[in-house]
């Protein structure tokens, strides 16, 4: 198996210099990157981004901002046409860690925005979600192939960021569910992202039902490129990258062509972002109370899973 070098090992003498240089260049260009961990595998020209949100495994504003900075930094550093042959990153791969891949959107952030009637903050959350999906779907404007591997349960809008990648796989124990409809809500980018892969009818059924799907069922519906045995998701991506390097230019061109043929994703997502922001601000007290209860349920569930006390700061922040 190829050895990965994380950003925490940059000063280790055994780490190849190129690994340090790539990550250092990205961090210098992108700036502060909370809630993510970077690793680079030079042999397969793959940059790994491990999502590590703090407190809860949700897509926080900080996480979305970090992901966007990484995408833009890669493009700024190596996206010029005359830099293609020397570009050290040909594959951008996302992975998670822990007992959940994601619990979805950041309900605590939503509730805080609703308490303050803060449209601007909600709109910024939607904007960052949209930007990330557009960059992923375009392969950073044809520079890289974007991939994601799901190792555990994925809930709600947190599915959309990895599904916006050119390739998304899941380990057999993973599952997928969009429960937003049950509390009078909907995920920002899911309609556009899912429809491109599953077709609009299958996407509509999944979003309106709120029912959980196994990895196998999600793949059968068109939501995945592969289902792999437990613990092998990252190895699948490594093999794909290794096998695809000789035909990388053609593959990125094809992904770009199919992305363009599917329509103007940015325009569609910006429209969805406006609808989502309006929908959030129109939630009545009953719906907001339901969101509060769901957030509190998440706290209790995480306390059991991680065997830690519930965070009183989170509890007080949810009070409207």
Structure description:
The protein is of the alpha/beta class and 320 residues long. The protein contains 14 helices and 11 strands. The strands form 2 sheets. It has a 7-stranded mixed sheet, sandwiched between helices. α1 packs across α2 (61-78) and α4 runs antiparallel to α12 (265-281). The longest helix is centred in the C-terminal third of the chain and has 22 residues, at 285-306. The radius of gyration is 19 Å and the shape is globular. The model is unreliable at 1-17 and 312-320 (pLDDT under 50).
pLDDT < 50 stretches: 1-17, 312-320
Widest sheet, order of strands: 1-2-3-4-6-8-11
- From the alpha carbons, calculate the radius of gyration and give it in angstroms: 19 Å
Number of helices: 14
Number of DSSP-assigned strands? 11
Rounded mean pLDDT is: 91
Work out the helicity level. Answer: 40-55%
Distance between the termini: 51 Å
Order of helices and strands: EHEEHEEHHHEEHEEHHEHEHHHHH
Described by strand count, sense and barrel closure, the largest sheet is: 7 strands, mixed
């Amino acid at each position: 198996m190829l050895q990965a070098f994380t950003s925490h090992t940059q000063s280790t003498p055994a780490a190849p210099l190129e690994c340090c240089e790539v990550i250092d260049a990205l961090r210098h260009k992108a700036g502060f990157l909370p809630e993510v961990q970077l690793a680079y595998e030079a042999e397969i020209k793959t940059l790994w981004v491990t999502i590590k949100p703090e407190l809860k495994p949700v897509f926080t504003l900080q996480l979305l901002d970090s992901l966007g900075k990484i995408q833009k930094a890669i493009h700024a550093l190596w996206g010029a046409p005359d830099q293609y042959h020397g570009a050290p990153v040909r594959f951008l791969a996302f992975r998670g860690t822990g007992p959940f891949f994601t619990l979805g959107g950041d309900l605590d952030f939503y509730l805080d925005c609703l308490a303050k009637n803060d449209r601007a903050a909600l709109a910024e959350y939607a904007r960052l979600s949209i930007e990330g999906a557009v960059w992923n779907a375009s392969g950073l404007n044809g520079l890289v192939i974007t991939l994601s591997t799901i190792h555990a349960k994925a809930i709600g809008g947190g599915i959309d960021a990895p599904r916006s990648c050119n390739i998304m796989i899941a380990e057999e124990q993973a599952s997928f569910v969009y429960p937003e409809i049950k509390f009078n809500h909907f995920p920002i980018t899911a309609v556009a992202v899912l429809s491109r892969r599953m077709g609009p009818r299958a996407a509509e059924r999944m979003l309106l039902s709120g029912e959980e799907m196994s990895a196998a069922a999600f793949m059968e519906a068109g939501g995945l490129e592969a289902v792999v045995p437990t613990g092998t998701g990252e190895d699948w991506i490594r093999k794909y990258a290794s096998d695809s390097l000789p035909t990388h230019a053609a593959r990125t061109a094809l992904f770009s062509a199919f992305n363009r043929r599917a329509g103007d994703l940015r325009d569609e997502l910006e429209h969805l972002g406006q609808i989502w922001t309006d929908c959030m601000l129109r939630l009545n007290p009953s719906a907001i109370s339901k969101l509060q209860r769901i957030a509190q349920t998440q706290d209790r569930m995480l306390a059991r899973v991680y065997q830690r006390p519930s965070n009183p700061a989170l509890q007080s922040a949810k009070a409207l």
